Structures are given as C-alpha cells and as structure tokens.
Amino acid sequence: MSAPQTGPGLLRHGTGPRGLRRFTAPRPPREERCELCGAPLADARHRHLVDVEKRALACACDPCAQLLDRSADTQGRFRTVPRRYLRDPGHRIDEQAWERLGIPVGVAFFFRNSELGRLVALYPSPAGATESELDPETWQSVLSATELAGLLAPDVEALLLRRQQGRVECYLVPVDICYELVGRMRLRWQGFDGGAEARADLEAFFTHVREQAREPRGSRS
C-alpha cells in the first residue's frame, strides 16, 4: 500500500482550505444560491450535486435536484446526491480487516469514482480529506464484507466506516455528509488526538447517522 496522499479522487471540498470553505469558514453574509438556476437557498441543509467533471460539490435547490434525479442521466455532468442512509449490522469488517486498510484514524469513507474507474478511500485529517490508495485485493476484501458495497451509487454515495472500541460500524451515506465531516474535523481538531470538542462533534455526527440509517430491504441480516 502506498503512503496516504491527497489526489485526483478527492472532491473539491476535500482538496484544501479553499475547497472546504463551505464547511470550515464562517458563512458569508451573501445569500447562497443554486449553482444551476440561481434561486436563493434559504435552507442551510439544501441539496447538493456532484460535478463529475470538476470533482466538486455544487449547491442546488430542490427543483433542480429533483429534475436531475428524475432524469436518471448517469452520463451527464451533474448528479444529484441522494438522501438515503443504510446500515449493515451483519457486515464482516473486523479488526483484522481494518488493520489491512492501513488507515491511521478511526473513520474512513469509500466511493466509486466513475472518472477514475476505481474505488477511492479517504479519511479525515487536520489537513482535510486524505486519500489512501488501496491495492485491489485489499479494497475487494472490504467490498465483499458488506452488502452495502453493491448498493453504492457511483460518485454520489459513500461507504462510511468507523472503528471504535474493538468494533467497526458500517453505513451507506450521501457523499456530501462525508465532506461535511471532513470540514468539521479540520475546523475543530486540536493537538494529537483531536481534542474534546472534535471528539464530541464526531460522536454527534455518528449519532445523527445512526438515527437516519435503515437496513436495506431484503437484507441478509
């Protein structure tokens, strides 16, 4: 496995201070607008699109997000980030599998990058989203250990893992919340272990994910 690095698999929100500004910088006084039609966005939890050409997240109003969603155009430039959260309590990702990933923190997320044609593995760090390149055998061992991997929509959904107290939690989530988490950790991280504020924010984030997540229909568990 090569050393963790930033790279082309990152969405723009994860490539540095400028890219993470939606989640780390104070909200600008100007009104946020849909990046497709220009409509004002009153809701702070508005929808996002993935710009697959620029590897960036774009803000969107509900009508634009729904229009792209209904079109089901997987070849277009923009793809709507879904809102579904799934959990897999019966996954087989154990401590040994996590060690093989070689990720130095307790949280990581994976998504299929359609432009690169491969899985991208990322984890939050004080510097932002950091990419860890996995050899095919390693990431295949992760994919085969959870049914959620087969449900991932490319570019817009992520497999989110958390290792804590000897166990691993496994979720399928919208990719934009993973970059939100990256921004929150970058903003609040202090010292070697992140500090109390970052740990509390991380716990609040995963509490929200647990509350939203449901088991997929026809789950083997």
Question: Would you mind describing this structure in some detail?
Answer:
- The protein contains 6 helices and 9 strands.
- It is α+β, with helices and mostly antiparallel strands and 221 residues long.
- It folds into 2 domains: 69 residues, no CATH class; 127 residues, no CATH class.
- The strands form 2 sheets. The chain has a 6-stranded antiparallel β-sheet, with helices on one face.
- Strand 1 and strand 2 form a beta hairpin.
- Helix 5 packs antiparallel against helix 6.
Give the H and E element order: HEEHEEHEEEHEEHH
What is the typical, i.e. mean, pLDDT? 82
**Assembly state (oligomeric):** single chain
Number of helices: 6
Major sheet: size, sense and barrel closure? Answer: 6 strands, antiparallel
Shape: globular
Q: What is the terminal-to-terminal distance?
A: 32 Å
Strand composition percent: 15-25%
Spatial strand arrangement across the major sheet: 4-9-8-5-6-7
Structural category is alpha+beta
When the domains are counted, the total is: 2
The Cα radius of gyration reads 17 Å
What is the count of β-strands?
9
As residue ranges, the low-confidence spans are: 1-8, 13-18
Helix share, percent: 25-40%
List the helices and strands and how they pair.
Blueprint: H1 21-24, E1 47-51, E2 56-60, H2 62-71, E3 78-80, E4 86-87, H3 95-101, E5 107-113, E6 118-125, E7 128-131, H4 136-143, E8 157-164, E9 167-174, H5 175-188, H6 195-212
Antiparallel strand pairs: 1-2, 1-3, 4-9, 5-6, 5-8, 6-7, 8-9
Helix pairs in contact: 5-6
